[in-house]
Amino acid sequence: MHQYSIAEMSQGLERGDFTSVELTQHFLDRIDEHNAEINAFVTVTAELALEQARNADAVRAAGQAGPLTGVPFAHKDIFCTDGVRTSCASKMLDPFVAPYDAAVVERMREAGMVMLGKLNMDEFAMGSSNETSYYGPVKNPWDTERVPGGSSGGSAAAVAARLVPAATGTDTGGSIRQPAAFCNLTGLKPTYGRVSRYGMIAFASSLDQAGPFGRSAEDCAYLLSAMAGHDERDSTCANEPVPDYIGALDQPLKGIKVGLPKEFFGEEMPASIRESVDAAIEVYRAQGAEIVEVSLPNAHLSVPVYYVVAPAECSSNLSRMDGVRFGHRCEDPKDLQDLYTRSRAEGFGDEVKRRIMVGAYALSAGYYDAYYLKAQQLRQLISDDFKKAFEQVDFLLSPTAPETAFKFGEKGDDPVSMYLSDIYTIAVNLAGVPALSMPGQTVDGLPVGIQLIGNYFDEARLLAAAHQFQLATDYHKASPEAFA
Amino acid sequence: MSWEVVIGLEIHAQLATQSKIFSGASTAYGAAPNSQACAVDLGLPGVLPVLNKSVVEMAVKFGLAIDAEIGQRSVFARKNYFYPDLPKGYQISQYELPIVGQGYLDIELEDGETKRIGVTRAHLEEDAGKSVHEGFGSMTGIDLNRAGTPLLEIVSEPDMRSAKEAVAYMKKMHALVQYLGICDGNMQEGSFRCDANVSVRPVGQAEFGTRAELKNLNSFRFIERAINYEVERQIDVIEGGGEVVQETRLYDADKDETRSMRGKEDANDYRYFPDPDLLPVAVTDEDIETIRSTLPELPDAKRQRYVSELGLPEYDAGVLTASKAVADYYEAALAAGADAKLAANWINGELAAALNKNELNIDESPVTPVALSGLLSRIADDTISGKIAKQVFEALWNGEGSADDIIEAKGLKQITDTSAIEGIIDEVMANNGEQVDNYRAAPEDKRGKMIGYFVGQVMKATQGKANPGQVNQLLKQKLDG
Lengths: 484, 481
What we know:
The complex is a heterodimer of chains A (484) and B (481). Chain A is of the alpha/beta class and 484 residues long.
C-alpha cells in the first residue's frame, strides 16, 4: 500500500479497496517501525490523524470526497498547526504550540488530507544537510550515513522511506529541490506568491516559498492543486487563477524548447553529474524537444547575493524570538538585557546565529549601501537574466545540486562549501520563478536530481514536462531497499 | 550674548481607523490589557501584516491639506530594535519613501503676522504596545492593545523660533487633523502627541546648535513649559562653559524639568530595510483627485469665508475656526437661524466662559447650538435685552427649557410699550425730585453722565425688562423737558 502513488491511493479509496483509516494506520505503523532509523518525524499526531481519517471516510461515504480526501501526508515543522507543537526544529520554539493554522495547513485540511505529523528540518530552514536540527540530523534512507539534504530533509527522507506518501516543504534557496535530489523524489518550488506564506515561519520573506514533495510530478500536481491560490492574509500572495495541474500533465513535449544555461555547465560540474544531466537531455531530445544553449550572465553572483539578502531578512524575522511572549526563555533573567541575550544565545543554534550576525551586519549603518542595496540591485539583474532566457525557451534544465548526498560532518567546518551546495538552485529563488527537481540517472547507487526551471506561474507546463520525462524513464520509481 | 531658539517637531497623530494598520484588531481605547491584540499584533511566528487601506487615504488627505507632494510609490520599512512592548522586534514604518513629502502649514503669531512652517514629510507607521510598571512587583507587564495602532508621523522643518511658535504650530496641526477627520485629537489618550527637537545658537550664527530631543509631550502646556525649560538649560550649559550633548530627554511635568533618557552613543542602529512582507503602496493621480474631492473646508479657508461672507472681525473668525468642534457648533447655530455676528459674540464670550469655568469641551455643552440660536433670536427681535439674555442663558445652561419657555416662565419679556415706560419714568421722576432739579441745573456736558442714575432707577423698577434704548430716549425727552 505504501508504494502507491497519490493517484492510486485516491482511486483505491474511491473504489473502496481500503479506507482512509486503514491507509493512515498503515503509514503510522511504518513510522513506528522506521522513524528511529532516519529521524524524519519530530512529532507524530497519530490520534489526530486517525480522527481526520475517520472524518475523511465519512465525507467519502457521503459522496463529498475530492481527489485528496483521506490521503495521508505530513507537514514540514515550519507550518503553524493549531494545537500542535511548531518548532522549526529549534530549541527556541521547542515549547511553542501554535494557536492557529497556517494557510497551507488549512488548505490541505479542507482538501481532506490526513496529517500524520510534523517533519524534521534544518533549524529555521537554515542549512543544506539537515544537520542543524535541534532534534538531531535526519538520515538519508538511501544510505543512512549520508545526509538527506536540507533544509526540508525530514520531508524528503520520510517520503523516500515511504513513511508518508507525500509531504510539504519550503524552499528559500533550494530547500525543497536539493533534498528531493538527494532522496530520489520530485519536489517543486512554485513561483514566489503562488502559495500563501501565512503561518509559515519566515526565514527570508522575499525568497521563502512552500511546495510539495512527492514521488512523481503527478504526485506534486495533486498536492499543488490543494496548496496554491490567493490568500488575503499574505500581501505577497498572487491573485492568479489556479490552473488544472493534473489535467495539464498530458501536454506532449514535441516542439518545446529546453535551454541549457551555459554558466551552469562549466568545469565546476562533476563529470558524474554531467553524465546524468546528459542522459536527461537525451530523453527530452528523443521526445521532440529542441535543446538550445542560453545564458544567465549574472547567475554566478547568486550565492553571494543570496547570502546577503537571506541573512538580512532572517536577522529581522527572527527578532520576535526574544523570550518575552513565547518560545524558550532563559532561567532567572536578572534584567531585560540578560533575558534577551541568554534566551537567544541558548535558543538558537550556531548556523542560525551565524546568519543573524551576517544579516545584522549587512543592514547596519554604513554598510547597508555596500551590501544590502548592492545585493538588491544584482538580484534585479539576475531576475532580468531569467526573463530574457524565457523569451527564447520554455524551460531551463540543469543539475539540482553539484553532488550526490554527502556524508555527515563532511562539510561541518566549512559553511561556504555547504552554501555552494545550492549554486544551481539559489538564482531561482532570487528571480522568483518556479523550478522542480526530479530523479535522473543515479551515480554510484545514489540519486541525482535534474532541475527544470519554468517561467513565472508556469507550474502546469513545468509539471507536465516532468511528467512526460517520467513517462519515458523509471528513475523516479526506485526506492531505497531497506525501506521497501 | 543673545540666543536664538531653533525648534522642530515630530507629531504623532493616531489615525481614526476602526481597526489596526496591519491587522483586524480593534483600536478602541481603554479595553482590558491584551484583549485587543490578535496573533498579528502579538508578533507570533508565521503571521504577516496586511495593510489597512483606509490609512493610505487618510495620509493622502493630510498631504493634500498641507499642499505636499504625495508619494505615488511609498514603501514600508522595518525599524529594528528590541523592546518588550515591540512584539516583532521591529516597527513597521516608512523610511526612504514616505507617503507624504514636503509641505507646509501657516501659523498666526501673536503680533498678527503669519509664519510659514515647513513640513519635511509625513509617514505611516504602527504604534508599539505599552509597558506597565506598576502592579507586577519586580516584573514589568506588557499591554499590546496599542501595538499596531496606525500613526501618521508628521516631521516639521526646524522652522520654529520660540515655544509659543511651537505651540501655535501644534495647535494648528491639531485642528487640521480633526478638520480632516483623520484623528480624534484626544491628547489625554495619546492620540496626538509630539517630540520636540530643541537647540539654541547665538543670534546671527548660521549653523544650528546641538539639539536635544524631548520625548512624548502630550499637552500644549507641557510643550511650552518643556521647551522653555530646555532652552534655559542649554543656555546655562553653554554660558557656563559647557557643551550641549546630543541626547534624548524626558520632560517630567511634576518637577517641570527635562532629564536625560539616553545619549547619542546609546542610540540604536535601526537597520532599516524595506519590509519584504508588504508591497509598495501605489497612489495614482486618479486616487489623489478622488481623495481631493472629499476634502472638507479647511480652517484657513473657513476663517477667510467668515470674514468675507459673514463680516466677522478677523480675530473672531480666527477663534471660531481654531477648532473644528467650535466651528461646527457655530455653523449649527447659524443653520438654526442665528445672526452671524451675534452668534460669534456669544460663542466666543458667554458660552466660552461657561465652558471654561466648568471645564467642558464645546461638544459637551449643555446648551445646544439650536438652543443658543433660540436665545439669540429673542435678542435680535428685541424680546429681551442683552442683559436679560445672560439670565436666560444661565437658565438654559441649567436645563430649564428653551429660551422662550424661560422668558415666559420668568416673565422676562422686554417692556417696549412707550406709554408703559413713560408711566414708570414719571413715577421715578416724581420720587426723585431733588435729582431732577440737579439734572436740570447742570450744564449740558454733565447731563449725559447724570442720566445714568435715572436709567438705573427705571431698570430697577422694571426688573431690567425695559428696553434700554427706549428708556434712554424717553428719559432724555422728559428730563430735558
